[in-house]
Write a structure and sequence with these properties.
It contains eight helices and 16 strands. The protein is α+β, with helices and mostly antiparallel strands and 369 residues long. It has a single domain (8-368), classed as Metallo-beta-lactamase, Chain A. The strands form three sheets. Strands 1-2-3-4-5-6-7 form a seven-stranded mixed sheet, with helices on one face. The longest helix has 15 residues, at 167-181. Bound molecules: zinc ion.
Length: 369
């Protein structure tokens, strides 16, 4: 851990982010979109991954956040509560925190923004049933990550990007390929957001009204209703994709309707903007502290391969972040973190004891607003 710091430019950043996607409690489309173009070459490495060209940049600044347009449950099993679910038994309750048998480890080289001829959306296949998508820095400096998790009955998309990309075309293309590979005729797509900030929800509207697609609203009421959370944020529930159980954990603090997802398929925890290698903007500090503790408790007895957020803002130098708004990320920190980062964050915010300050750790920066 490194000493607290509050350089003048950071104060300015704090003011700036108040206007950007990840600070306010509502939306706010980040600016700094630069031209995007269709791409050619794949990044080096890229073991299982492939990239998708999404050439035409259609600005999509429509406000998709406010409405609670939950189009309803994704058919039968949405929203079963924690305790009940029959299907939990196999891999969710017999774990004792042992190292998972199989963890994703084929991480790609993410585009660093230096070549804007690369595709707007980089698609990486993590495993047979899991895809990780990243919006390019060239199309928006927030460069958020999105997750596509396939079960046998439905596929869940977490987040839709910061706009200015053809995210729906990219996602449906992956789905089509998956259906072909699995000899399946169709699958329901459920679009949810890690939280309601604009840099994660701008593409929601592109999925509205599409066949076999449910778009969950972004407010607490819509999220609670869809997943069947009766006691927000204390109650954790499960959501079954079909032979793939997700635990939905309410984690307000960065933003009021933020959720984490523990995925029993990949044995990883999706933490959105609440924990990632970057500046962890905290709007409601006491609530955030409780949310981090809730996540730590939840995964205590679960195998946790990785802790996966939705941005990277740290460099590979410990404690060092890219300037706010940077559109290139040379020597970018890896996206994946571990459960030890989660406990480090818990202890870090708890130690502030009601007097939050900006504090840089090696792999993230606690950043109260
Ligand atoms: Zn955010």
């Amino acid at each position: 851990m490194i000493l607290s710091r509050r350089a003048p430019h950071r104060i300015l950043f704090a003011a700036l982010v108040g206007l950007a996607g990840c600070a306010g409690d509502d939306d706010g489309g980040p600016a700094a979109a630069t031209g995007s173009s269709d791409g050619a070459t794949l990044p080096a490495d890229d073991s299982a991954g492939s990239t998708n060209a999404t050439p035409s940049a259609t600005p999509n600044d429509g406000e998709t956040t406010a409405s609670g347009e939950s189009t309803g449950r994704g058919s039968d099993s949405a929203g079963e509560t924690t305790t009940g679910s029959e299907t939990t038994a196999d891999d969710s309750t017999d774990s004792t925190g042992d190292p998972p048998s199989a963890c994703a480890d084929n991480w790609p080289q993410w585009n660093d923004g230096s070549d804007c001829g690369l595709p707007d959306i980089q698609v990486h296949q993590v495993s047979d049933n899991t895809f990780l998508l990243r919006q390019s820095l060239c199309s928006n400096f927030e460069a958020p990550f999105m997750y596509l998790l396939f079960g046998t009955q439905r596929v869940l998309l977490q987040d839709t990007g910061a706009g200015n990309i053809e995210i729906a075309a990219a996602v449906y293309s992956v789905i089509d390929d998956w259906l072909t590979a699995n000899n399946q005729a169709s699958i329901e797509l459920v679009v949810v957001n890690s939280h309601g900030h604009g840099d994660h929800t701008q593409g929601n509207a592109m999925f509205q009204g599409q066949p076999n697609t449910v778009v969950v609203g972004t407010g607490v009421a819509a999220v609670s209703s869809f997943f069947g959370i009766n006691n927000w944020p204390q109650e954790t529930v499960q959501y079954d994709l079909g032979d793939r159980m997700l635990d939905i954990i309410a984690i307000p603090g960065h933003q009021s309707s933020h959720i984490a997802i523990y995925d029993h398929g990949e044995n990883w925890l999706l933490t959105g903007d609440t924990l990632y290698p970057g500046r962890l903007y905290i709007a409601d500090f006491p609530t955030y502290v409780e949310s981090i503790a809730r996540m730590v408790e939840h995964v205590a007895d679960l195998p946790t391969c990785n802790v996966m957020g939705t941005h990277v803002e740290m460099t590979t130098t410990a404690g060092d972040d890219f300037p706010f708004g940077a559109v290139t990320h040379p020597s970018e920190h890896a996206l994946q973190l571990t459960s030890s980062h989660l406990t480090e964050l818990r202890d870090g915010v708890a130690a502030m004891a009601g007097a939050p300050v900006i504090e840089a750790h090696d792999d993230f920066i606690i950043y109260p607003l």
